[in-house]
Amino acid sequence: MPKDYGIGASSKRREDVRFLTGRGQYTDDLSIHGQAHAVMVRSNVAHGKIVSIDTSAAAAMPGVLAVFTGEDFKDVGGNPAGWLIKSRNGEPMREPKRPVLAHGKVRHVGDAYAAVIAETYEQAKAAAQQIADDAVIDELPAIIDMKAAAADASNRVHDEIPDNICFDWGWIEDNRAAVDAVFKSAPHITTLELVNNRLVPNAMEPRASIGEYFPGTGDYKLTTTSQNPHLTRLLVAAFVMGIPENKLTVVAPDVGGGFGSKIYHYGEEALVLAAAKKLGRAVRWTAERSESFLSDAHGRDHVTKIELACEKDGTFLAFRTETYANVGAYLSNFSTATPTFLHGTLMAGPYKVPHVYVNVKTIFTNTAPVDAYRGAGRPEATFSLERVIDKMCRELGLDQFEVRRKNFITPDMFPYTTPVGLAYDTGNYQATLAKAIEMADVAGFDKRAAASKAKGRLRGMGLSTWIEACGIAPSHLVGVLGSRVGLYDAATVRVNATGNISVMVGAHSHGQGHETVFPQIVAERLGVPESSVEIVHGDTSKIPFGMGSYGSRSLAVCGVAMNKAIDKIVAKGKKIAAHMLEASEGDITFEDGKFSVAGTDKAKTFGEIAFSAYVPHNYPLETLEPGLEETAFYDPANFTYPAGAYICEVELDPDTGKVDVVAFHCADDFGNIMNPMIVEGQVHGGVGQGIGQALLENTTYDENGQLLTGSFMDYAMPRASDVPFYNVDYSCQTPCTHNPLGVKGCGEAGAIGSPPAVVNAVIDALHRGGMTHVTHINMPVSPGRVWQAING
Amino acid sequence: MQLSDSRDIKAAPLAVWQAILNPDVLKECIPGCESLTGSVADGFEAAVVQKVGPVKARFTGVVTFSDIIEGKSLTISGEGKGGPAGFAKGGAKVALEPIPEGTRLTYEVDASVGGKIAQLGSRIIDGFAKKLADDFFARFQQTVEGPAPEEVVEVTSDEGEPAEEETKKGWFKRLIGG
């Protein structure tokens, strides 16, 4: 029987009660006495010289309290990039200043160059329009195409960067010659040029920020839609505004989805703080959906050429890739890590390929900044690998399953060091592949294909065997790779006098279900009901300094920090029990919520210990402190490496090119599972986003840099009817070897593993239908593109 | 976005040429034009109301003429700011050549939009622009040629206001003494 509480139980998500009944408290729900409204003035052109911004008419309009332009922030710091990447020639990346408001030039449609604060939103909006009408911005030619941008020194996104290249990175540069040599003598080479399409994150809740300033104390408060309030505080305090950290509280209350886009610090956050100080009033800003499309950090946007060198029997010899990665107009906080260390280091996949070389050129363009979006770099790596492998199998007439099996790292080879610098601690790729084949009833495929054919439709099956590095943390590793911050996490477990427990965590929950899962672990470890454990997150004045939630790290990093804090609680509880039971500390055991003297029936319940900790009338004060509260910081030894096998089946209408995903099977290895229901939900969401990328979503800028897909009318999000009911399995478990919970993380897996499975299935359907001339279709594989591929 | 087409107009090239440079004619022919003032030398100030898909806006801007080869060809350029809707700008190269029936007017339009119109209306902007150009040149043709007799009859019977017939009929021809 499945467990009904604690680790491994499918406890219902307690946060859903408030989310589903409209009782969530999002940033925009807050109403603060005396608040004023901010509206940003955003550029309508992709690239332009700011000649003048005449704000006088706007400033005189009804209700207008203040107007800001880039000039007001020219002396404060820029919003920095979190990772310093070096080019192949050893030079550090080019790092232009990213100001709070554009100054001198506007660099993408939606780039904010002024802001209005007014009594009401409508007044602010009207005055913002007045500024837009009065500003003189000379449009310059837009820089949109990456390769053209790199080739043309005469037109520059940033005047000081001559070729629009941020860096030209080689991974691992020392291996380049050896990889090239393999390609010179390889019996077979498969080459594929592909595009990893640009995506708009489209969190359900748009970004919003409220700044407050308290003149009595000089304290600031920022309430904002953030996945990591401490990181935002650090960036605002230390880099941009120069506010002492202890004078700035950052609160990220309920946040309606992030998918990466809310990791980063954005200029609006600094703006509302500066405005609040100037006016002595709370200043609020909430993005319109159009602003989200224009100014949230986008995802993906790679143009890649990948080559696979192999034996005629499909044994991999080497992978070589050249990628152009779009960073947009400015460097967002993680934008330099995403196409490099979250991408290049994964280019060996789960395979024992001896040689890999990755070249990534990141290019500035007059488009919105591009940064990590669910999966971040790993979907790009997986898509390139799994697509080129599929193409190779077709070229050589090899079985796709057999080729994977032949090249997988085998379970006896762990820990396994890849040629791209990672050390996989554990895994069993054969097991997840076998499971997926069983789940998908691969043996019965021909029968299903025949049934589809009878309906006039083509059926195809696509495979993707993916791996990721997540639990984004190890400070020593990310430090070597260029990160300017350490990436540990922290938790405080506070046992209250009456025995209930508050856990303050550095991770932030914006849909993941931390408020449910973390108490399951506490309940299991301390033998208390889940309902007596409360998770506190998102408020820097309450929680220890943690690095937030992204990179499937919450459980594998912060959850383990919490587990460490629980260890300390148990140790402290034993001390208290030893005192109360007049026994030696070494004789106390803790089991099922009871502290006992080994070999006797003398025991104290957890609740009695907790109460005693706060009513310590007779404690030996030199050896036993009152209270029962412990904090732990945890910095893991390595990334975690979830992996799995996905099989997608599609039906394709050859007359219209329409693709329907009719079945999707996921066999994942996430290590130990804390809450199966939540794991399934994460996989569903991730695969849904992956199908969205594969079939529907695309971000299009025209040659002038105008965003043509600026609303849900033109940007196709997946709907319920676009996805099948997923078949999810997580029974293949190789627990992570370097964290005590044995967990790996599951948040991004679906978005990483699924796009190549979908596209491989489409190509398979076309080949089975005799259209073997189609070797690749770029995502999104829309009906139009399929029809064109079919009809040449 | 680019589009090109040609129209045969039953009027002499000189009459067509004068019509193109006449602000009253342009005001009559530009769909949604509220006002148009100025001169060929200094450019025209124009205000035009348009609805592109979900975005309705009043564009104000300047229309200028360049590359003028008297009686033969010219380039009309315009840029309009549409407030919250964004902007539209573009140009039309217009060339006239005499044909037995009158004048062949050839045009190549190159237009672009920015801001909200681009974000919300991109799906329909090409079709919209084509329709706009078609409307303009159809009205232009009608203005220069004067309405066909049967159309006048139709208008008369529909509206029941025969007094309008006189004003509709080739007012531009009368204006330029044609």
From TrEMBL, chain A:
Annotated protein name in UniProt: Xanthine dehydrogenase family protein molybdopterin-binding subunit
UniProt entry tagged with the keyword Oxidoreductase: yes
Can you give the residue ranges of the Aldehyde oxidase/xanthine dehydrogenase a/b hammerhead domain?
A: 21-141
What does the UniProt keyword field contain?
Molybdenum, Oxidoreductase
InterPro entries in alphabetical order: Ald_Oxase/Xan_DH_a/b, Ald_Oxase/Xan_DH_a/b_sf, Ald_Oxase/xanthine_DH-like, AldOxase/xan_DH_MoCoBD1, AldOxase/xan_DH_MoCoBD2, AldOxase/xan_DH_Mopterin-bd_sf
* Taxonomy of the source species: Bacteria, Pseudomonadati, Pseudomonadota, Alphaproteobacteria, Rhodobacterales
Q: Which GO terms describe its molecular function?
A: iron ion binding; oxidoreductase activity
Automatic annotation (TrEMBL), chain B:
Identify the species of origin.
Fuscibacter oryzae
Q: Which residues form the signal peptide?
A: none
The protein's matches in SUPFAM superfamilies, at most eight in alphabetical order, are given as: Bet v1-like
Output the Pfam families linked to this UniProt entry.
COXG
Q: What InterPro entries does the annotation carry?
A: CO_DH_gsu (IPR010419), START-like_dom_sf (IPR023393)
Protein's UniProt name: Carbon monoxide dehydrogenase subunit G
